[in-house]
Structure to design on (235 residues):
């Protein structure tokens, strides 16, 4: 990466440092919540971060768990994660081709499964298939944190979102309106945002042998909820 001058390099260094400090604080909060729910996280186990990106959560995972695996669909993200891990932290970085999650993970099993800000970009049919595979790898006594957007069924937003996802043009228009823009370009890139209603997630969680210990619902002005599910597989 090219830096124009020392000041810019120092600025970017502070941003990176703050990013991973946030990751540490976030992981502390997640572990504290599981402990409060009566299912403390085991540090002597294996952890998975699906959709690890540049490693904001994976880097602290690699420091505190026996082993850590990071999976992402973008090779550039995995390279950044590898760079941030450095020589002092070890993690198994795996590229997901968008199709074969079982081939990506092989016979790996985990005591901690984590995925946030990821399945919202994946069509639910594929996202649910991925989540089933991840949770099937959860060891007895293990915990999982799954974050997925949802909204109440049969609401106006629910209907509009279904219509929106059928047309790239409607998606671009919706993004422009959400940002307060009065103009939009039909060639703008499409960023999908899929909903995962509880009536689709809960049967899948139960089929995987997981119990829901808690769900945090973080609402936004559009009527959506960023639902964070705290799961436990009884031992």
């Amino acid at each position: 990466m090219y830096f124009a001058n020392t000041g810019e390099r120092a600025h970017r260094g502070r941003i990176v440092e703050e990013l991973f400090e946030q990751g540490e604080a976030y992981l502390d909060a997640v572990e504290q919540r599981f402990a409060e729910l009566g299912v403390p996280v085991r540090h002597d186990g294996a952890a998975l971060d699906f959709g690890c990106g540049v490693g904001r959560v994976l880097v602290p995972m690699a420091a505190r768990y026996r082993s850590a695996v990071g999976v992402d669909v973008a090779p550039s993200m995995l390279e950044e994660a590898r760079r941030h891990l450095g020589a002092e932290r070890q993690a198994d970085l795996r590229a997901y081709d968008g199709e074969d999650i079982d081939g990506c993970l092989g016979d790996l099993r985990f005591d901690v499964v984590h995925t946030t800000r990821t399945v919202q970009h994946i069509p639910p049919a594929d996202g649910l298939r991925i989540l089933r595979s991840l949770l099937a790898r959860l060891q007895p006594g293990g915990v999982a944190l799954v974050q997925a957007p949802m909204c109440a069924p049969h609401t106006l937003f629910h209907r509009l979102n279904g219509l929106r996802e059928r047309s790239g043009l409607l998606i671009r228009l919706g993004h422009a309106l959400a940002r307060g823009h009065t103009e939009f370009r039909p060639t703008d890139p499409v960023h999908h945002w899929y909903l995962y209603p509880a009536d689709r997630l809960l049967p899948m969680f139960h089929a995987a042998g997981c119990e829901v210990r808690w769900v945090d619902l973080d609402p936004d002005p559009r009527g959506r909820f960023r639902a964070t599910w705290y799961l436990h597989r009884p031992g």
In short: The CA atoms of residues 8 and 14 lie 10 Å apart. Confidence is low (pLDDT under 50) at residues 1-11. Residues 6-36 form the longest helix (31 residues). The chain has one domain: 6-151+195-232.
